[in-house]
Amino acid sequence: MGNSALKAHLETAQKTGVFQLTGKGLTEFPEDLQKLTSNLRTIDLSNNKIELLPPLIGKFSFLKSLVLNNNKLTALPEDLCKLKKLETLHLNGNHLRQLPAAFGQLSALKTLSLSGNQLRTVPTQLCGLRHLDVVDLSKNQIQNVPDTVGELQAIELNLNQNQISQISGQISHCPRLKVLRLEENCLELSMLPQSILSDSQISLLAVEGNLFEIKKLRELEGYDKYMERFTATKKKFA
């Protein structure tokens, strides 16, 4: 992509607050964007070949949405955690193994999508985020869900297509969790905490494609309580 094309994109972005440059084979974050640190609300650089985010990402103090799906990111800089207005972060289809230590400082974050990375556990940093609504951790290499998950504030947690064989019963303490997706994992029925059914806010539990037949779920104690929540929610959205 020539400089003139980039220049045109920058001029548009200055007016609209949106910089979108997808599928252009970019190998690095465009340095020229730093001229727009106070203008940009949205940056979308999906479907490129970006391997690193520079520290200057932390200077976009008005950024609300950052979309970097299908790049080659292996790590995120700590500076990303300075984005106090960031509400949406999409990083699907990268090579991330962990999140920065200060990730919990992204205090405005509502939607976090990390599908198709190389995470091995549910990052504990997520538990500090008070406004988180949706967390997508599907298609990673997560094997267990730790006790810290009980502090997660999300409404929906997607853990489909991982390698989960163990889940902490603390998940039933999540104060806002309504939707829990665990399809295509390695769960035995005995490893599914009964408290999810009998004693949680969860009104949609998706567990198809594990190591048990779905109809066996109905035999568990607490299933009727879960069905009450499920039905009540369905009525609300019908």
TrEMBL record:
GO CC, any one term: cytoplasm
InterPro entries: Leu-rich_rpt (IPR001611), Leu-rich_rpt_typical-subtyp (IPR003591), LRR_dom_sf (IPR032675), LRR_domain-containing (IPR050216)
UniProt KW keywords: Leucine-rich repeat, Repeat
Spans through the membrane: none
One Pfam family per UniProt: LRR_8
Name of the featured protein: Leucine-rich repeat-containing protein 57
Organism: Fregetta grallaria
